[in-house]
Automatic annotation (TrEMBL):
Its EC number is 3.1.13.5. Residues 244-324 form the HRDC domain. Pfam families: DNA_pol_A_exo1, DNA_pol_A_exoN, HRDC. Keywords: Hydrolase. This is Ribonuclease D. Residues 1-26, 223-242, 323-345 are annotated as: Disordered. Coiled coil: none annotated. GO terms for biological process: nucleobase-containing compound metabolic process. One of its GO terms (molecular function) is 3'-5' exonuclease activity. It comes from the Bacteria. CDD domains: RNaseD_exo.
């Protein structure tokens, strides 16, 4: 980025308080080519060794991105990793040809990694041996700074004055060889991440939020891998229509059978059998394959063998004893849904209403989303079972126990303590 563009970006940030300007004197400049051209795809150990050496010798933070094949392949593995660092240029690495990037991760372990929406990419990067110790998340920085749109394209345009072409974001990145336009798009995704990071750091510092952002980034970098989701079949789209336990068992059996097929074929589960088809079969509990074929999602294009495996899943659910059937809902973790509070505990409902209003007002004053100021779940937990004395010290301790960061505790503790004190105690 030229000095002129840096000056324009800083002026826009300074005059708009972190939000894009209302009127732009010049249209954004289309970013059409990486400044050193499209780098070759690294798919061999020899080429990877050269990249490791180059990035180890580079300076400053490293921009990192990853492309997955969501909707096409099973799981969320990375199919392309993009990096850029001063002194090393850009690199495109194929994790299919180079499935172990731990050597690259090691030489960058003490370097700050710049990612956009880090929580989306870190799991797949961790699978191939790339685990950062420090990060700067440009999407989260944009949220904390008050930007109304925080997608990478929107941020680059409003902060740096460039327009990124985003037409290939949802393509099948498992395709080999990757088409040149896709590679160009991938290289451009890290082209300006360092510049964006620098501009956002200045803006966060200007707003007095830089230390807050650093606490958030540290929390993301140090978070352990998420545990496997319990009963993932319960998240089948349309599950709210399923009321009876045997129908729930059919959802579970069909979902499990579909997942096994999808994993074996390495395709997205939705390409094997749609959620809507699972729900239809579970509601109908067909007696045989002919009845199953008449249901939406099980048409004439589906082979006899496939139909028989889905009917077998339904039959397994129908053969279960009452004791083997799933329970209607998952065990509650934390307080009940807020819509039921007025009946279950009117005092708690009053506390929650007061707390929400206070948090909303503060978030607006700080120019950031409420969920970034404090998570709604944390507010609900504190309001449902507040500490006994309602003091700021006790509230702060409760917030910390739910994972709130220091800056969040400092900002919301006085408000929540006041909201809890002004409403009755749960008998």
């Amino acid at each position: 980025m030229t000095d002129a563009h840096k000056t324009a970006a800083e002026t826009a940030l300074r005059t708009t308080g972190g939000a894009p300007p209302d009127d732009v004197d010049k249209a954004p400049i289309p970013l059409l080519e990486p400044r050193e051209g499209i780098p070759p795809v690294v798919a061999t150990d020899e080429a990877l060794a050269d990249v490791v050496a180059a990035f180890a010798a580079g300076t400053g933070p490293v921009a990192v991105d990853a492309e997955r094949a969501s909707g096409y392949r099973y799981g969320q593995r990375a199919y392309l990793v993009q990096l850029r660092r001063e002194g090393a240029g850009s690199a495109l690495i194929d994790p299919v040809g180079c499935p172990d990037l731990s050597g690259l991760g090691e030489v960058l372990s003490d370097t700050e990694w710049i990612l956009h929406a880090a929580t989306q990419d870190l799991p797949c990067l961790r699978e191939i041996g790339m685990v950062p110790s420090r990060i700067f998340d440009t999407e989260l920085a944009g949220r904390l700074a008050g930007f109304p749109r925080v997608g990478l394209g929107a941020m680059v345009e409003s902060v740096l004055g460039f327009a990124l072409e985003k037409g290939h974001s949802a393509v099948d990145w498992s395709t080999r060889p990757l088409p040149e336009p896709w590679l160009r798009y991938a290289a451009l995704d890290v082209e300006l991440l360092v510049d964006l990071r620098d501009a956002l750091e200045k803006e966060l510092d200007r707003q007095g939020k830089l230390e807050w952002a650093r606490e958030e980034f540290d929390a993301i970098a140090s978070a352990p891998p998420a545990p496997p989701r319990k009963d993932p079949w319960r998240r089948t789209s349309g599950m709210h229509k399923v009321r009876r336990r045997r129908q729930m068992a059919a959802v579970r059996e069909l979902w499990t059978a579909r997942d096994a097929v999808a994993q074996r074929r390495d395709v997205s589960p939705g390409k094997v059998l749609s959620d809507s088809a699972i729900i239809e079969a579970s509601l109908a509990l067909p007696a045989h394959v002919t009845a199953l074929t008449a249901l939406p999602g099980f048409g004439h294009r589906m082979g006899r063998r496939q139909l028989e495996q889905w009917q077998a899943a339904v039959d397994r659910a129908k053969a279960l004893s009452e004791a083997e059937l799933p329970q209607p809902g998952q065990p509650l973790q934390g307080p009940p849904p807020p819509r039921s509070w007025a009946d279950k505990d009117p005092a708690a409902a009053a506390r929650l209403s007061a707390a929400r209003a206070a948090v909303s007002e503060l978030a607006e004053r700080l120019n950031m989303p409420q969920e970034n100021l404090i998570t709604p779940d944390t507010v609900r937990r504190v309001c449902w079972e507040p500490p006994g004395d309602r003091s700021e010290g006790a509230v702060a301790e409760a917030l910390a126990s739910f994972g709130a960061r220091r800056w969040q505790i400092e900002q919301v503790t006085p408000l929540l303590s006041a909201a809890l004190t002004a409403t009755p105690t749960k008998p």
